[in-house]
Amino acid sequence: MTVLRTPESRFEGLAGFDHSPHFTEIEDEALGTIRIAHVAAGPKDGPVVLLLHGEPSWSYLYRDMIPLLAKAGARVLAPDLVGFGRSDKPDRIDDYSYGKHVAWMQAWFDKQKIRDVTLFCQDWGGLIGLRLVAAQPDAFAAVAASNTFLPTGDREPSEAFLKWRGYSQKIPEFDSGQIIQGATVSDLSAEVVAAYNAPFPDDSFKAGARVFPMLVPISADDPESSANRQAWEVLESFEKPFLTLFGDSDPVTRGGDQLFRAKIPGCAGQPHQIVEKGGHFIQEDAAPQLAEAIISLMRLK
């Protein structure tokens, strides 16, 4: 087994993203030391907002939201999941599991020593981030969930997700930039598409991206279904503010906000939004609107 590290030269001159990385080392029993990257912005003593991305993106997805949140006074932390961005990339598909992703990010979170955190999570950022909230609800002040879910395998997955799952395993070239463009309403420039491909010099770096869709629990006996049910039990008593910001043009998660709003007490009375012309990668389509909603949630103005 090998843990790969994308050369820093791949990240030079990226469109709209000049953040220097910070690195945190965690320990994995099988893989040894893994380095997780994150970007940080805003006042060091400001209230923390944690931005968790999904697949196959990285913290670059938040480039238009980070400065808005920082200007409002938030301390912004945007990590790259293991296998993505500037974080280390185990090169075998078998090195990845849902449970490992949660454990890796929990280890990273614990080392940041942060409290009263507002979480914004999208796609796999929710599948992982909501598990962190359930494990340490006292560490979080609020949650904003966008185009995500916390599946237990007890419900039929959407047809759109199953199509994506099959497609992700069949395409010979896993082109992250084009995948993100295909799930975004707005047109991305060639430079932005290239930036999404920057973490992956060749296919050997893409094991984590390629396998992610297969790790979503779609049956009740999935290895992580029980852990997600337990997480739901905690979330069903989570009374802190919980805001949903779902795109109207995302066939994969459309309607998923209703489940959160029905089950989580903290959703009551929140100004939930269905974002017009918001695709799956809603950060590309509605960054100012999302940032404004988070700023209001954090009561920064």
The helical percent reads 25-40%
Q: Would you identify the CATH architecture?
A: 3-Layer(aba) Sandwich
| Percent of residues in beta strands | 15-25%
Q: Mean pLDDT across all residues, rounded?
A: 96
Structure description:
The protein contains eleven helices and ten strands. It has one domain: Alpha/Beta hydrolase fold, catalytic domain (Rossmann fold, 3-Layer(aba) Sandwich), CATH 3.40.50.1820. The radius of gyration is 18 Å and the shape is globular. The strands form two sheets. The chain has an eight-stranded mixed β-sheet with strand order 2-3-5-4-7-8-9-10, sandwiched between helices. A two-stranded antiparallel sheet has the order 1-6. The termini are far apart. Strand 4, helix 1 and strand 5 (75-79) form a beta-alpha-beta unit. The mean pLDDT is 96. The longest helix is centred in the middle third of the chain and has 15 residues, at 98-112. Helix 2 packs across helix 3 (124-135) and helix 3 crosses helix 8. The chain has 301 residues and is an alpha/beta fold.
Detail the topology: elements first, then pairings.
Layout: E1 3-4, E2 22-28, E3 32-41, E4 48-52, H1 66-71, E5 75-79, E6 89-90, H2 98-112, E7 117-122, H3 124-135, E8 140-146, H4 159-170, H5 176-182, H6 190-197, H7 207-211, H8 225-235, E9 242-247, H9 256-263, E10 273-275, H10 282-285, H11 287-297
Parallel strand pairs: 4-5, 4-7, 7-8, 8-9, 9-10
Antiparallel strand pairs: 1-6, 2-3, 3-5
Helix pairs in contact: 2-3, 3-8, 5-6
